[in-house]
């Protein structure tokens, strides 16, 4: 059986290789584009309306753009069509957030131990992000110190 220290070392051997941060991080151009996005003017005006997706066009797009076989594309699109039909029959409408992962303002996606990386990330996230990352790093260091003896 492994000691707590050996278990910790075995599960954390590749942690440093998981973060790749370029020297120019954070990119000022990216931060500026995020803060002041360039949005094209729409000529749609008030004529925009929501409607059912064109499933045949989606299937053809998946075959052409993703290289899926006709069968794979049909299966994937039919799954989506079935889920939409079931939701409509139940009188529910899914939210857009159901289709991707979201994090609230206080959630931590990672514990960043590097002071340089933490400072760079904090520069783009403000005081709340800096405090949360600092607390997470302190917590992680405390954990490592407890199991290092």
From TrEMBL:
It comes from the Eukaryota. One of its GO terms (molecular function) is DNA endonuclease activity. It is found in: Nucleus. One of its GO terms (cellular component) is nucleus. Keywords: Nucleus. The keyword Flavoprotein does not apply. PANTHER family: DNA REPAIR PROTEIN COMPLEMENTING XP-G CELLS-RELATED, DNA REPAIR PROTEIN RAD2. This is Uncharacterized protein. It comes from Bicosoecida sp. CB-2014.
